[in-house]
Specification:
The chain has 77 residues and is an alpha+beta fold. It has one domain. It contains 2 helices and 2 strands, in the order ααββ. The chain has a two-stranded antiparallel sheet with strand order 1-2. A hairpin with a 2-residue loop joins strand 1 and strand 2.
Length: 77
């Protein structure tokens, strides 16, 4: 049995409840994450291991977001 995640449909449902500014902010996060994932793959291909860990959590008026830092390990370590 194949489980369908409905990612696109859920994203559209969630974004319809957001303001235009919120939608723009989420698009920016998604674009930056795409670039980050590409950079992580390039680093791994270059011979290092990369782990992203939460370094802090930013709060504002009941909302929060995780702030990340990379932990990098070279093959010789």
């Amino acid at each position: 049995m194949t489980v369908q995640t409905r990612v696109k449909e859920r994203a559209e449902e969630q974004s319809s409840a957001m303001t235009a500014d919120q939608q723009a902010a989420i698009r920016m996060v998604a674009n930056d994450l795409h670039r980050l994932n590409h950079s992580v793959m390039k680093a791994v291909d270059a011979g290092v291991s990369v782990e992203l860990i939460r370094s802090a959590r930013h709060h504002n008026e009941g909302n929060w977001g995780d702030l990340m830092i990379p932990v990098v390990v070279t093959q010789g370590s």
